[in-house]
Automatic annotation (TrEMBL):
InterPro entries reported for this sequence: D-2-hydroxyacid_DH, D-isomer_2_OHA_DH_cat_dom, D-isomer_DH_CS, D-isomer_DH_NAD-bd, NAD(P)-bd_dom_sf
D-isomer specific 2-hydroxyacid dehydrogenase catalytic domain: residues covered: 5-317
Keyword match Ligase: no
PANTHER family in alphabetical order: D-ISOMER SPECIFIC 2-HYDROXYACID DEHYDROGENASE FAMILY PROTEIN (AFU_ORTHOLOGUE AFUA_6G10090)
UniProt keywords, alphabetically: NAD, Oxidoreductase
Domain D-isomer specific 2-hydroxyacid dehydrogenase NAD-binding: 108-285
A molecular function GO annotation: NAD binding
Protein name: Hydroxyacid dehydrogenase
Superkingdom of origin: Bacteria
Family indicated by similarity: Belongs to the D-isomer specific 2-hydroxyacid dehydrogenase family.
Name of one Pfam family that matches: 2-Hacid_dh_C
Length: 335
């Protein structure tokens, strides 16, 4: 019997859809709400689900007995209840190697844009304020100090790009040793709070966990240079936005660039929107066309491998392997 894969509109790129359609039955749900996902998974007895931003909750895992695999079209997994997936014997996959180059490039763009106050400069020219060139003096990034928080694939690629611009690169990541960082031309920072006064740019690429939630708040901003810039391409809640606003308004730091926010999409009256020294993008640092194609191809192939009984290299909850067949049998028996 051919397996069935549920996709959700708007869905993954055509190359991924084509692969899945060539090998499996593909069903498309019009919405990504919990009730709709449950309805479609059960109506079509779907074996796999691929999501982008949709939440895959405990109720979904407990309500859908045929579900065997959930594929995340991206890297972050905070929208998927991985614990519940494991308890229900459902394999969770992501695509960790598809977009790191795009995110690293986005971070470099932010570094350059912040150093030249690009958005304000553009606005001044458009409003005939040419004299701005005598009021603001941009800075070089040459020989400045960059701290990368989170030295995974994104952080490593950013370090490589930053070295081309002759930035001094420091890394904060408790999971990488000093020798491992040295391989990437990076100096390991043992203490986040101690390295902050040295930094001109700080780029966040850490996952959101209990330990990283609001890792940048009032205490951290107090330690930063008044000219320093913070960049967030990780998760919105790595930064306490109220503390960031206070730091920016009182000139405790120089500016910020945010691809992610605590609430997405944000409220139109978000206080940070009133500040000229903040750059925003809509959580698409990793969403270049090239990255989306790679991501769609990767997650489709890996979901396919899992449905064929092979172990995916991108499996994030290997503990589910032990109970997957048992749990699926139990759920099918109950239903």
């Amino acid at each position: 019997m051919t397996n069935t894969v549920l996709l959700i509109e708007p869905t993954i790129r055509p190359n991924g859809v084509q692969y899945l359609s060539d090998h499996f039955n593909v069903i498309l749900a019009p919405f990504g709400q919990e009730a709709t996902i449950i309805e479609y998974l059960n109506k079509f007895a779907a074996d796999a689900l691929i999501v982008r931003t949709e939440k895959v909750t405990k109720k979904i895992f407990e309500s859908c007995p045929t579900l065997k695999v959930v594929g995340m079209h991206g890297v972050g997994l905070d929208n998927i209840d991985v614990v519940s997936a494991t308890e229900n014997g459902v394999l969770v996959l992501n695509a960790p190697f598809s977009n790191y180059t795009s995110v690293a490039e986005h971070s470099m763009m932010y570094i350059l844009a912040l150093s030249r106050n690009l958005l304000v400069s553009d606005k001044k020219v458009r409003t005939s304020e040419w004299s701005y060139r005598d009021q603001f003096f941009p800075m070089e990034i040459n020989a400045k100090n960059l701290l990368i928080v989170g030295m995974g694939k994104i952080g490593q690629d950013l370090a490589k790009k930053a070295k081309v611009f002759n930035l001094n690169v420091y890394g904060f990541d408790p999971f990488l040793s000093e020798s491992e960082m040295r391989l990437h031309g990076v100096t390991k920072a043992e203490s986040l709070i101690d390295i902050l006064p040295l930094c001109d740019f700080i780029s966040l690429h850490a996952p959101l966990t209990k330990g990283t939630y609001h890792m940048f708040a009032a205490e951290q901003f107090e330690r930063m240079k008044s000219s320093a810039f913070i960049i967030n391409l990780g998760r919105g809640s790595l930064i306490n936005e109220a503390s960031l606003y206070d730091a920016l308004v009182h000139n405790k730091i120089g500016g910020a660039a945010l691809d992610v926010l605590e609430e997405e999409p944000p409220n139109l009256h978000h206080p940070l929107f009133n500040l000229d020294n903040v750059i925003f993008t809509p959580h698409f640092g990793g969403d270049t066309l090239e990255a989306k194609d790679r991501c769609s191809e990767s997650i489709s192939l890996e979901v396919g491998r899992s449905l064929k009984g092979q172990i995916s290299r991108n499996l994030v909850n290997p503990k589910a392997l032990g109970d997957a067949r048992v749990n699926q049998s139990i759920k099918k028996g109950v239903n």
